[in-house]
TrEMBL record:
The lineage of its organism: Bacteria, Pseudomonadati, Pseudomonadota, Gammaproteobacteria, Cellvibrionales. This is DNA-binding transcriptional activator DevR/DosR. InterPro entries: CheY-like_superfamily, EvgA-like, NreC/VraR/RcsB-like_REC, Sig_transdc_resp-reg_C-effctor, Sig_transdc_resp-reg_receiver, Tscrpt_reg_LuxR_C. It comes from BD1-7 clade bacterium. The modification 4-aspartylphosphate is found at residue 59. GO terms for molecular function: DNA binding. GO terms for biological process: phosphorelay signal transduction system; regulation of DNA-templated transcription. Residues 148-213 form the HTH luxR-type domain.
Amino acid sequence: MPTKSHQIVIADGHPLFRVSLMNAITEYYPDATIELPESFGTLNRVMGAGLKPDLLILDLTLPESAGFSGLIMLLANFRRVPVLVISANTTPRVISKAIEHGASGFLSVDSDSEEISSAIGCILKDGVWIPADVGLSQGHLSDSEAKAAQLIGRLTPQQFHIAAEMAEGLTNLHIMKKLNLTKVQFKKQLDSILRKLEVRTRKQAIVSINYLHRVLNATTTTLQ
């Protein structure tokens, strides 16, 4: 049984599965320190506060994550943190996209504790884990997917959150209050978002972020 203490983040939006994952991990890694953010916004705050876990387990349907968009942003901003993706959608293309975007592994939500432990052990040793009974798609990211990933990857966690809130229809004032930002701080972040997304106006940024989310999740009509 592993003896080294590890810090692991389980970012999953399903309470029962979150507990199941935690129990499976503590069975094999009893000394592990586990964080349990329930939304992408909470995960961003935890990571942005300086947490450097040995492993991040990410549910592709985590609230506010926008599927692959959230994965890409995390990988771009926290390059040294390996990410193990969890999803009920285990089609070869979904798994391939997760790995192509930089995830260190992929697990089905139906995985038992032994497989979860094996996946974690593999990734902690710098390996890559995919389900044994799944053959990866031979396709590569399209040019539009690669460009979309590049643009999303430019955003910081806070900028990603702001862009997502704008896309949801929130006003600048509501976003400032929700994220506890001053007008000056918000304007600075908005200007940076516009520049990074290569647009000129707030409206164009909203159109752009929605388009990027659609492109990145185009092959996954449902991730759940």
